[in-house]
Every structure is written in structure tokens, then in C-alpha cells.
Amino acid sequence: MASHFIIQSILTSGLLIAGFAVGAEENASNPLAAVNNTDIRYQYFDLEGGADRQDVFIDGAYMLRPDLKLKYELHYNSTNATGARFSGFEKTSLKLIYFPSQKPLNDTWTVKSALGLEWTLDFGDPDEGIGTGSDQIAPFGGFAFANTNTGLTLIPLVQHFASYNGPTDVSQTAMRLIALATCLLTLPTLSCAQSLTAPDQDESSWGHGAAFYLFTPLRTTGTSTVAGQAADLDLGDVLELLDFAAAGRYEAWNGDFGIIVDAN
Hints:
Layout: E1 2-3, E2 5-11, E3 14-20, E4 37-46, E5 52-65, E6 68-79, E7 86-98, E8 102-104, E9 109-122, E10 136-147, E11 152-163, E12 168-186, E13 189-192, E14 206-226, E15 229-234, H1 235-241, E16 245-254, E17 257-263
Parallel strand pairs: 1-4
Antiparallel strand pairs: 2-3, 3-17, 4-5, 5-6, 6-7, 7-9, 8-9, 9-10, 10-11, 11-12, 12-13, 12-14, 14-15, 14-16, 16-17
């Protein structure tokens, strides 16, 4: 089981993480990886107009069976986005992921399928700038295509989010595409593999990983109510502001020490 303590800070859109970890057989950045891990993270968001949002959260996963994974998160926020400083728990989420099959496509590529359900309990108050105040369920499905020679993993996922109570009523279907590449650096050589850390990795070896994320809303409808005022949402309104979201991540691990940089 990988156990991390991670400190994160975000300046405008940058993210810096430093922490401690125990090596895993697969890259924990892969949501379909069969790994156990627990991270404690801190994020600082620099918002417009001098406002900020700080997020302290637990992010982890546990393999219940070789084909069944449980992911969990718990977020605590502090923000002055509304003009006054409010603090409180934002949300907790549980995600159950089942892996029906994993098989080689050829000598180079393997594929793993996944089906899952995410349940989010939102403790926030939109009037305080924390959370949406609405609980959600979100079924999803996807595949992980891994290249055993280069360490490249491509993960297309489709997920539908639906709130079932609270002031924000949203129904959204979205697609995510994640590209991961991991390499092991032992000076003066560089080799790529599926794992960030290897069982025989020595103290002078650095494991490196890179990830690229794309998020595209396919369909969005719903109603948001803030301070007693309701507003209808549709995909056209959303896409006027957002065609897609993109983010990148770089990871470096040496033994139990790791550094991760995110930008979005």
C-alpha cells in the first residue's frame, strides 16, 4: 500500500506537490490502476479579485479484490470568494470500480476495461462559496490501453453526473481522455516502463511520470439555485465559456520521496 503525505500549492493555475510515498506496482495517477494509496493534500487556488480558496483533502484507493477497487476523497475548504471568510467540509466521495477484463491486444498493447459508480455527498453551501450543496451519483465506464514497451497508457472514460437533491440540479455527461507516460532514470540511462518505481530500484534512480488530461462536456442540463434565485443551465451556455478543460502533470519519485507538478 502506498502511503503519501503531500503538500500542494496553486499559484493562479500552477500546482506544486511534495511528499513521501511507498512504491506501487502501477502508476497511482492512473484511475484504473490496481494500487492501494492514501494521500493527504493541500491546495491553494488564487481566485480573481484577491480572493482565494484553500482545499485540504484525503485522496486514496484500496483494492477490495484484484478486480474491484474503492477510491475515496474527503475535502475541507476555506475561502473568501463571497467577500467573507468561510470554512467547512466541502464534500466526500466514494468510487467503486470493477474491472471485468484485462487482456493483451498484441505483443505491445494490453487493454483493461472498467465500470464504476461514484457517489458524492456535498456538505457545502454555495452562498458561502463552498461546494454545490447537492449530492450526486455518477456512473462511468472506460478502458486503459497500455503500451508495455514505452510505458504509455491511454484512458478514455465517459461519465454521467446526476444530482438527486439540494439547490443545484445538474445532469451532465462528460468524456475524459487521460494520457500517462512513466520512465525510470538511472544515470546515464533512461528507460520507460509501466511503473513509477521498480522493486529493484536503488536510491540513485528517479522514476518520472507525465500525464495529460482532457475533459469535454457532451451534454449538460439542470437548474442552479443560489440565494433563492434559480437559473436554468444548458450545454450551449456552458460551451460559451468552456469548450474543454485540459491539465498536465509531471511526477518524480526517488525511493520514498516524490515531487508532483500540476498545471491546468
